[in-house]
Amino acid sequence: AVGQSSKKPKTDEILAAALRLYRERGFHGVGLDEVGEVAGMSGAAIYHHFNSKADLLVDAYDQVGGRIAVGVDDAVAMADSAVDALARLAHAYAATSLNSVDLIVVTAREFDALPASERPRLARRRRFVRDTWVRVLRQVRTDVSDSEATLLVRGTFALIERYVRLVPAARADVDELVALSLAWLLPSHQVMND
């Protein structure tokens, strides 16, 4: 158990270094030697923690996907109405995004860099999240079709991802981001009345 507890922090440091570099230069623009340098180790030492640069990216997707899936489950389970569920979904996604900016930015743009064998599993998780949002939105917005609701949800994800890229961390505000998301998703009379 002692060896495991010391391994996890180093793994987290490697992943944080990789994500920062991937965000700045893209997945293909970064080598393991550079990741190792930022993490305070040699590129070769990374192989004690990850099998490849692609494994780092898969781990990033697993982390963000897990955090977002938990947020989705909690939001739906704790809500007392569809509107409340939608607000909770927006809050969970916004909070996760603001707390994990490098993770969100990298996973939003590097899906094609994932190993082909991992894409179906990670795409299923992404669909689960999107489909849950769509189902909740359709309960609130009976005036939109499934395809329109899907477009609105994808637009919300893009809005949140763009916000965390552009707004400095010192000025970022979860409540502001939730309000922007709900303004995008709901007609103005629903936002004001609920």
Question: Mind explaining what this structure looks like?
Answer:
By secondary structure, this protein is mostly helical. Helix content is 75%, strand content 0%. Helix 1 crosses helix 3 (53-78), helix 3 crosses helix 5 (101-109) and helix 6 packs across helix 7. The protein starts with a helix and ends with a helix.
Helix-strand layout with pairing:
Layout: H1 2-25, H2 32-39, H3 53-78, H4 82-99, H5 101-109, H6 119-140, H7 146-166, H8 174-185, H9 188-193
Descriptors:
194 residues, mainly alpha, elongated, disordered N terminus
Number of strands: 0
Radius of gyration: 18 Å
Task: Tell me, rounded to a whole number, the average pLDDT.
Answer: 88
Distance between the termini: 49 Å
| Overall geometric form | elongated
Number of helices: 9
User: Unreliable runs, pLDDT <50, ≥5 residues?
Assistant: 1-6
Order of helices and strands: HHHHHHHHH
The largest pleated sheet is described as: none
Counting helices, strands and paired strands, the structural category is mainly alpha
Strand content: under 5%
Helix content: over 70%
